[in-house]
Amino acid sequence: MWEALLAIRHYGCPISDTSADIPGVHVQNLSKAETSGHRAKRLICLRGEKTQINQFERAFREHEFVESFRRISDGKSRQAYFTSKIEYNSENPSILNLLGSHGCYRDSTVSVQRGIEHWGVYIEQKESLYKLIEKIGTLDNDLDLQKCINMGTISDTPPMDTNAILTQLTARQQEAFETVYTLGYYMTGSDITMDDLGEAMDVHPSTAWEHLKKAENTILSESGQRFFGGEEPMEQLIP
Hints:
The relative contact order is 0.15. This protein has helices spanning 14-21, 50-61, 95-101, 126-138, 162-168, 171-183, 194-201, 205-228, 234-237; strands at residues 2-9, 26-34, 39-47, 66-71, 79-87, 105-106, 110-113, 116-123, 142-150. Helix 6 (171-183) packs across helix 8 and helix 7 (194-201) crosses helix 8. The protein is α+β, with helices and mostly antiparallel strands. Strand 2 (26-34) and strand 3 (39-47) form a beta hairpin.
């Protein structure tokens, strides 16, 4: 089994197009399914400044392939949920359609920012992955193969549930972690500080630090559980 990470600028896709026009909004495509023909329905989460989310909402509705876009959460926070129905052009089908036609499995959540869709996919034959990449390219889309590894034989070890981790983070904790990651905080030699994070989040640096530390604790605890096992957090096992 092969695991790949594809970064795709899907021209003609309402999500990719609108995200490119309004890069300040982070889109999470939480769930989607093909319906009849080239129609697709989605559950979408938008995160960012409320004014930019509203701007994204207006622009998305105006896209030629959008049949509906309905908010299902209130507009009081920096995170909003929507349902949508999209009808793709048959000459440029959805990425989900292409993945299915090439025998790919996919992660449940697709992250989109600055117009780039990030797809985690799994496929049994590497040749099929290359055919998928070639097909996406022939449709005048931009694609960057960011990772391609041979997973070998699937083991009995359960995979890390990234969606479950996200549900344990508050919106501000998730925002803090994503912001420092995007700024390059974890890169060797980075000079990003909590002042930079606080400015990006429009909060005091100490508040930004608290959100980040809580996010890191949750993510690292889950990672440790996944890689090293054990039923209890390490601090509870130490006498």
